[in-house]
Structures are given as structure tokens and as C-alpha cells.
Design goal:
heterotrimer, A: mainly alpha, MetI-like fold, globular, C: mainly alpha, two-stranded antiparallel sheet, ABC_transporter-like_CS (chain B), ATP-binding (chain B)
Chain lengths: 271, 378, 296
């Protein structure tokens, strides 16, 4: 049994303190009574109350959620298709260009992606609003989805698809009845990633959003530029809370699934 | 085989029989690599046909072309007289049992077996009836609700078999079906496979690299090497009458002796094979010309070992025992001749080891009959 | 038929929303500033046909790129972005390596939890993570309060709105990108290699330098590129933590576009930024390729 050495324990403790202390402070001070964000003046939840009254924030949150759900759903469909093409597509015209276009947005600075999309929307006379943000987010997040899904597809046993064809499936049925159910966890991770990226994005949204639609990150950014505010602390705490519960829940579920699979495997050996 | 005096099953000897599968000058290339080289082959209905060869010999490619996952670069494949060229895998009257079994991990044993039937849009009770029948056949009724990862390797193999037979294909392809099983289980399963093949009357084509497996299960074997069929015949003929040195060497253990033959007179030849050794007298039906380079192949168990030269021996040579490989039931003696050549002789161990008649360094004679070996053209 | 649809749909989407927009940027970077909407010339007039196309191309020039070399704001911004990215990447490595090492050598039942702790911040809003440092680094912030209280300093340190704050921001936000590839390289490593090294006469430290470190090299390279590449074009961190003193090209582009409304120059800035990024991206790809081959 391996134990922590002193050196490793110290570096891990300091490292995780560095990663988590800033957020912890943020969470604690969201319950601060005082308007001054660096002086503790007693426990209060009043900033959460004020946040709930702030129509502008609520509107922005609603827009962000809409954009996130729609764009990540389209991105998941397109990204899964793209992954399937990359891994199983064989040769087709412009394959190199296609894989280039899948990988380029991953390393493209957001300012450039945002700028280029804005210039396109203006060029074709598309009014900026929810639609343009959705288009922009779908484009870059589908690339992330396709990377996640294709890494699963690479390890996917091809003979399963062949078995489905052999038993009378059309290629589309083989994908729907065999491939998709098996790679579903990767597709779901892809969706979650796309959704998070969309909720998170400031730069591209700033370029592609119009006066009619503002997302939460844009709203937060314009407000924190002026300095730290307890309302933003409260908002951040809510967001951190949701993510933490989500990630921990997800990992507990997957851990349980792994444990169950292992128990099954052991049971199968005994039969 | 029918025991009640019915004719022996041998459609390949009947010129009027129509083959179920016909490969006609099939060539398959992957880039520069030729996997199958101008191959022509007939397989008949109800046969248990084995494609045997080392890995990379093209046997799996042949099977995948039958299933429709690869298309021939040249030539045609017919199943039941129909050209398979334009027919997609899902339209073929052919099913395949995959080496990895390829059981769908998200479906139960029952659903796996029903999968192919559902695709045909058969009525529900018919599907249920058929699945139950298949489960009974492979003795897995109790495991119908389990998922593939909840059953053992041997059970998985049987599910895969049941799934591929459920649609009653004209032809079942089996890709190394027993490769993942341990030795004991493999032997039992071989006989089970033969029973199922006989009872269902399906034509089986099996791909294997295991010669014992091929010999056990197959009605005929095609020995393949580098994209070519080296010989197609029944197991006993492949073993006793190999067509060429490759087949003789690939199947079982053999002594291969290179030499120059005299012309065949009355189907008998004399083979000069080493300085100072008596020429080998051998029977052959081949038209051998004088001075032709030949290989003489003789199985170790056809070589007798004795302390003195047997009086009636047609072929004999003296040598020294170099090595003894003790296999329990058998021992293989490696006898080195003065010329340096080593002849293997196999003897059944009918006595206990302590009273073994020969040991290392013993001077012995090896001898064999005129009909014991095959003369192969080099 | 369906196969073509499956290929065409994502293909056309990326062509229309990734490649075409980028070509537009390229085109505008070669155009002239015009004080109307859209604020650049020439406009392609499809009705003029071939002559219009010829006319269109003849009006394109490299004026904006020449302008970028003349005004030292731009090349200073590029250089300073590069410098900040390099230094921040180095610091991230210094923080990330010991953590990755500690994780890889932790008891195996701890590893999934540690892994989750590294990934968790990645799912949390980037903007919020950067913002969380604003309250810590400001003159009356927690760091200064703490240091004054311990008596290490007597005057508050000025960190906020300096390059130091940008370094801290980059190290903080990109740390997981550094840890994960190094961890996966170290975790694959067979323990018996270290035992063999010690058996052959290495001290523990020598064994680390001669065995562990070289074996984690590909992870280090991958991690460094994963931090370096996005750092160069970073916008949020310099604009929230860096203040007006910090010159980074992402911020310059933003301001050129939104404040000065000079689209042709903003586009030219973007084109050069991309040209600079091509080299590290290719090197990164090559490292990944090599790694895949090594893994078989």
C-alpha cells in the first residue's frame, strides 16, 4: 500500500489551496452583510435577495440558458456526425480540410473567432441577437464535442457495427441501434462540455450579441470591470454550487457504474 | 456421417453437384499488398469448410468478402448462383460469428439473439419462438435476461453462435470461433459445433489458424498461404497426401528430405538424397522425370526405430539419438545421420519410462516402407 | 444517400461559419478604412461581374500590415503577449509539475478524487475564476490584509493592475491544462523503473532526474503548449487583472474593434496573431503525433 510522502502531501495541499481558496473566499464573502467586499460585517443573505430582484441579470441568465441548451444540442448532433465521419468516414473529398476545420477552432483565439463571426453576420445582414450567439456557440462547441466523441469511437470495437450490418441493419440502423447507445456516455459528456463552454463564453458572445440579447457573462464582465461587487459574489456562489453538485453527482454515478460492472465481471467469472 | 449405409457425404467428388459458394478468380489488394491472389474455390451445401493458414494468409479477408465487408478487387463471388458483388452485407443470406463475438453490450442475451430477427420485421411470437429455440439449442435458457458482461466466456461464445444462426442463414461464417476459449473448453465446443452444424444443416465456413481444430471439425480444409490456396481436401488426405512441401510442413510434424529423383517406373521412384546413403524407394502417382528435384515427406510416426537394421526394410538409415522429446503418450526421437541430417521418429510409449528401450547417444536404425511417405515436386 | 447528408451537414456548417468568416477577416485586413457602415472599402459588387471582381482585387493592399509595423504599439503588444505567455507558462509548470507528481504517486484509491479536484475548476466559469482574484489582489484585498497582519510588509503591495496579477491569473486558470498531461505521463510510468534505477546505484534524486523527468517530457511539452497557446490571445485576464499598463494583443484587438471601430486594422491584428500561433500549434501537433506513435 502506497502512502503520501511528505513532499507530495505538501505540494498537493499547497496546490489545491491555491486552486480553491480564491473561490472559497468568494463564496464566504457572498454572505457578507457589508457592501465593502473585503471587510466582514456579519452573516447575511441579502445579496442573494437583491440578485433575485435584478431584472437585467435574470433576463441575461434566461438568454444564456436558452443559448446554452439550443447551441449545445445542435453542437452535439453535428459534432457526433463529424466524429463519425472522421473515424469511420473513410476517404472523401476534402477530408484534410474537414479535419483542419474541426481542430482549428480549438486553438483559435476567441477574439479571432468572435471577430470573424461578427464580420460574417454583418456581411450577410443578419441581425445580432440570440440566433447569432447560438450559431457562434454551436460552431466552436461542435468541435469540442467531435473531439470527445471521436476519442470514444476510436476505441469502439468496429466488429459490433459489422455484426449489426451482418444481422440485417442498414448502416443508419446500425448506428442508431448499436453504436449510439454504446457511445451515449461520451455523447452526454460532449453535450455537457458544449453546454458549459456556452455558459462560460464571454468573448465570442460579446462580438456576436446584439443590443436585444445580452448573456450572463457579458453582464458580469461589464459589472466587474468597475470592481468587486457582493451581488456578483452571490451570483458566482450560485454558479459554483451548481457546477460542484453536478460534477460530484456525475462522478459518484459513474463510480457506482464502474463498481457494478466490476462486480458483474467477477460474478460472470464464477458462473 | 450417416451410418446406415447411405452414401458418404462428398459432393466435391460429384461432377454434377452445384456449389453453394463459388470464388471465381478473386483477387483482393489493399494498396500494394495482395491479400488474395487470383483464387478460385468451390464450397458445397452442408459442408463444414475450414480455411486454415498462418495469420496474414488471407483467410480472414476471404471470410470478410463473403460477409460483404470487403469487396474483391477483381473476380466474382457467387452464393447460390447469385453474384454477391452488388449486394450489401445486410442483404446477404450469410451470417457471421465474430472472433470477438461482437455481442451488443447494451442488450440482453435474449435481445442479442432477437436482434437479427427484429430487423426482418417478423411477427412477435415468431421471434419469441425462434429465440427460445435458439436458447434451448445452446442451453442458455436460464441466462436470457443477462447482459453479455454478466456471463462467462464460453457462454458468450454460445450466444454469438445462437445469434448468428437465429436467422437461419444459408451460410454461417465463423471467424476463429474458439480462439478465446481455454484448451479444455475448446475441445468440448468443437464437438458441440459439429453437432449443431449437422442438426441445422447449415453450411459452415470456419477460419482458424489451429490445425487440430480444422482437422477435427471440417469436412474439407483449404490450406492457405500468402493469398493462395495451397491445397483443398479432406483432413485425412491433407495429412496423408499433401500436395506440396508447404502443406506437408504446415500440417503436423514431418521429415522433409530434399533429393533428386529417377524417372517413375511402375509408380515407383528412387530418390538420391545424401552422399553415402541408400536411395529412397518411394511410391508416387506423379509423373516425375529423371533428375527432377523433389521433396520426400514422411511423418515421424511412419518412421520405425530399431537397434538393428530390420531385414525386410525397403528404406533404412543408421544414426545416433540426438534428442528425445517426451510427450507422455508419445516420444519423438531425433536421430542424427552421419551426414548431419536429423530424422524424427515417433513411437507410442507403451511401456513405463524407466524401461525405455532407447536413450541418448544410442546407435539405432530408422526405417520406413515404400508407401510411408509422399514424393512432392520441389 | 444518407452518408452524403451526414458528411455534408457538419462540413457545410464549418465551411459557412468557420472558413468563410475567416476569409472575410483576411479580406477586410487588406481593405481600407471607410467612415460608413460597414466601415471598410472596397465592397464586392457582384452585379459588376468580372470587371467588378478585378476592380475589387486591385483595391486590396497591405496598407494595414504596413501600418502595424509603423506604430510601435502593435509590435510591442505582440512581444509583450509572447513574453507574458512564456513567463506564465514557466510558472504554471513550476506549480503544476509537483502537483501532477504528487497525484501520480498518491495512493491509488485517492487518485480519482484528486483528479476530480483538478477538473472541477475547469467546469466552473472562467470569468468567475478570474474575478475571484480581484478581491484578493487589490490594495485593500485579502492578500495585503493578511501580509500586513503577519507583519511581513508594512505597506500594501501593488499587485492589482500589474503584469504580476496577469501571471497569477494565467497560472490559476490554466493550471489544470498543465497538470493533466503531465499526470497522465507520470501515471503510466512503471514503478519498477525507479526501483531498477536505485538498484543500479542512483540516489532518489538522481533517479528522478534520470528516469522520471525524461519520461514525463512529452507530458510537460503538451502541458506547456496547452497553456502557452491560449495565453497569447488571452483577453479576459489582462482586461480584469492587468489594468491599462498591461499590453496584450487580444486586448488591443478588442479595443481596436469596439473602441476605435477600425475593422481593417483589427482584422490585420487578428491575421498576424494567427500567423504567430501557427508555429506553436504545429509543434504541439508534432509532439502529440510522436506521443501517439510511442504509445503504439
Amino acid at each position: 500500500m502506497r502512502r503520501f510522502s511528505w513532499f507530495n502531501l505538501t505540494s498537493l495541499t499547497l496546490g489545491f489551496a491555491f486552486l480553491y481558496l480564491p473561490m472559497l473566499i468568494l463564496v464566504i464573502y457572498s454572505f457578507n452583510e457589508s457592501k465593502l467586499v473585503t471587510v466582514w460585517a456579519g452573516f447575511s443573505t441579502k445579496w442573494y435577495g437583491e440578485l433575485m430582484q435584478n431584472e437585467a441579470f435574470l433576463d441575461a441568465a434566461w438568454v444564456t440558458l436558452q443559448v446554452g441548451v439550443i447551441s449545445s444540442t445542435i453542437a452535439t448532433v453535428l459534432g457526433t456526425m463529424a466524429a463519425h465521419i472522421m473515424v469511420r468516414g473513410g476517404r472523401f473529398f476534402g477530408r484534410t480540410l474537414f479535419s483542419g476545420m474541426i481542430y482549428a477552432p480549438l486553438v483559435m483565439p476567441e477574439v479571432i473567432t468572435g471577430l470573424s463571426l461578427l464580420l460574417l453576420f454583418i456581411g450577410i445582414g443578419l441581425d445580432r441577437g440570440v440566433l447569432t450567439i447560438v450559431l457562434a456557440h454551436t460552431t466552436f462547441s461542435m468541435c469540442y464535442v467531435s473531439v470527445v466523441v471521436s476519442s470514444r469511437l476510436v476505441s469502439f470495437d468496429k466488429s459490433l457495427e459489422e455484426a449489426a450490418l451482418d444481422l440485417g441493419c442498414t448502416p443508419f440502423q446500425a448506428f442508431r441501434l448499436v453504436t449510439l447507445p454504446i457511445i451515449m456516455p461520451a455523447v452526454i459528456s460532449g453535450w455537457l462540455l458544449a453546454f458549459t463552454l456556452s455558459l462560460d463564453d464571454l468573448v465570442i458572445a460579446s462580438f456576436t450579441a446584439g443590443p436585444s440579447a445580452t448573456t450572463l457573462p457579458i453582464k458580469i464582465f461589464s459589472s466587474v470591470r468597475l470592481g468587486v461587487s457582493p451581488e456578483i459574489n452571490a451570483l458566482s456562489t450560485i454558479m459554483i454550487g451548481i457546477v460542484t453538485v453536478g460534477v460530484i453527482g456525475f462522478s459518484v454515478i459513474s463510480k457506482r457504474n464502474i463498481a457494478r460492472a466490476e462486480a458483474d465481471a467477477r460474478a460472470a467469472e464464477r458462473t | 456421417m450417416p451410418a446406415n449405409g447411405a452414401p458418404i457425404f462428398a459432393p466435391w467428388d460429384d461432377p454434377a453437384a452445384k456449389p453453394l459458394i463459388r470464388f471465381e478468380n478473386v483477387t483482393k489488394r489493399f494498396g500494394d499488398f495482395t491479400a488474395i491472389d487470383n483464387l478460385t474455390l468451390d464450397i458445397y451445401e452442408r459442408e463444414f469448410f475450414a480455411l486454415l493458414g498462418p495469420s496474414g494468409c488471407g483467410k480472414t479477408t476471404m471470410m470478410r468478402m463473403l460477409a460483404g465487408f470487403e469487396t474483391p478487387t477483381e473476380g466474382k463471388i457467387y452464393v447460390g448462383g447469385q453474384d454477391m458483388g452488388p449486394i450489401a452485407p445486410n442483404q446477404r443470406p450469410v451470417n457471421m460469428m465474430f472472433q470477438s463475438y461482437a455481442l451488443f453490450p447494451h442488450l440482453s442475451v435474449y435481445e442479442n439473439i432477437a436482434f437479427g430477427l427484429r430487423r426482418d420485421g417478423k411477427p412477435k411470437d415468431e421471434i419469441h419462438h425462434r429465440v427460445e429455440e435458439m436458447l434451448r439449442m445452446v442451453r442458455l435458457q436460464k441466462f436470457a435476461k443477462r447482459k453479455p458482461h454478466q456471463i462467462s466466456g464460453g457462454q458468450r461464445q454460445r450466444v454469438a453462435l445462437a445469434r448468428s444462426l437465429a436467422k437461419e442463414p444459408k451460410l454461417l461464417l465463423l471467424d476463429e470461433p474458439l480462439g478465446a476459449l481455454d484448451a479444455k473448453l475448446r475441445e468440448d465446443t468443437q464437438f458441440e459445433l459439429m453437432d449443431i452444424q449437422e442438426n441445422t444443416g447449415t453450411t459452415f465456413v470456419i477460419v482458424t489458424h489451429d490445425q487440430e481444430e480444422a482437422m477435427t471439425v471440417a469436412s474439407r480444409i483449404a490450406v492457405m498461404d500468402e493469398g493462395k490456396v495451397m491445397q483443398v481436401s479432406t483432413p485425412d488426405r491433407i495429412y496423408e497426401f499433401p500436395d506440396n512441401a508447404y502443406v506437408a510442413d504446415f500440417i503436423g510434424d514431418v521429415n522433409l528430405i530434399e533429393g533428386r529423383s529417377s524417372a517413375a517406373i511402375d509408380e515407383t521412384v528412387q530418390i538420391e538424397w545424401a552422399e553415402g546413403q541408400q536411395a529412397i524407394t518411394a511410391q508416387t502417382s506423379r509423373a516425375i522425370t529423371a533428375g527432377q528435384k523433389v521433396f520426400y515427406a514422411i511423418r515421424p510416426e511412419k518412421v520405425t526405430i530399431s537397434p538393428d537394421r530390420p531385414a525386410d526394410a525397403v528404406n533404412a538409415a543408421q544414426g545416433k539419438i540426438l534428442d528425445i522429446a517426451y510427450l507422455g503418450n508419445l516420444s519423438t526421437y531425433h536421430v542424427q545421420l552421419p551426414t548431419g541430417q536429423v530424422i524424427k521418429s515417433q513411437m507410442a510409449n507403451t511401456r513405463r519410462i524407466s524401461r525405455r528401450p532407447y536413450t541418448w547417444e544410442d546407435e539405432v536404425w530408422v526405417s520406413w516402407t515404400k508407401t510411408g511417405g509422399s514424393v512432392l515436386e520441389g | 444517400m444518407r452518408r452524403y447528408l451526414v458528411i455534408a451537414l457538419p462540413y457545410l456548417w464549418l465551411l459557412g461559419l468557420f472558413l468563410v468568416p475567416f476569409l472575410i477577416v483576411l479580406k477586410i485586413s487588406l481593405s481600407d478604412l471607410n467612415l460608413s457602415i460597414p466601415p471598410y472599402l472596397p465592397q464586392l459588387d457582384p452585379s459588376a461581374g468580372w470587371a467588378g471582381l478585378k476592380d475589387f482585387f486591385s483595391q486590396l493592399d497591405f496598407e494595414n500590415f504596413v501600418f502595424l509595423t509603423e506604430d510601435d504599439l502593435y509590435w510591442k503588444a505582440y512581444l509583450s503577449s509572447l513574453k507574458i505567455a512564456v513567463v506564465a507558462t514557466f510558472f504554471t509548470l513550476c506549480v503544476g509539475y509537483p502537483m501532477a507528481y504528487g497525484m501520480a504517486r498518491a495512493p491509488s484509491e485517492w487518485r480519482p478524487t484528486l483528479m476530480m479536484l483538478v477538473i472541477l475548476p475547469f467546469w466552473t466559469s472562467f470569468l468567475i475564476r478570474v474575478y475571484s482574484w480581484m478581491g484578493i489582489l487589490s490594495n485593500e484585498g485579502f492578500l495585503n490584509q493578511f501580509l500586513l497582519w503577519t507583519g511581513i510588509i508594512s505597506e500594501p503591495l501593488v499587485i492589482m493592475n500589474t503584469t504580476t496579477a496577469v501571471y497569477i491569473g494565467i497560472v490559476y486558470t490554466y493550471l489544470p491544462f498543465m497538470i493533466l498531461p503531465i499526470y497522465s505521463a507520470l501515471e503510466k510510468m512503471d514503478d519498477s523503473l525507479l526501483e531498477a534505477a536505485e538498484d543500479l546505484g542512483c540516489s532518489r534524486l538522481q533517479a528522478f532526474w534520470l528516469v522520471t523527468f525524461p519520461l514525463s517530457k512529452s507530458g510537460i511539452i503538451a502541458g506547456c503548449f496547452l497553456v502557452f497557446i491560449p495565453s497569447i490571445g488571452e483577453f479576459v485576464i489582462p482586461s480584469l487583472l492587468g489594468g491599462s499598463d498591461t499590453l496584450m494583443i487580444g486586448k488591443v484587438l478588442w479595443e481596436e474593434f469596439f473602441n476605435n471601430r477600425d475593422w481593417p486594422v483589427a482584422s490585420a491584428v487578428a491575421v498576424i496573431l494567427l500567423a504567430i500561433l501557427v508555429i506553436p500549434i504545429i509543434l504541439f501537433q508534432r509532439n502529440e503525433q510522436k506521443q501517439r506513435e510511442a504509445d503504439g
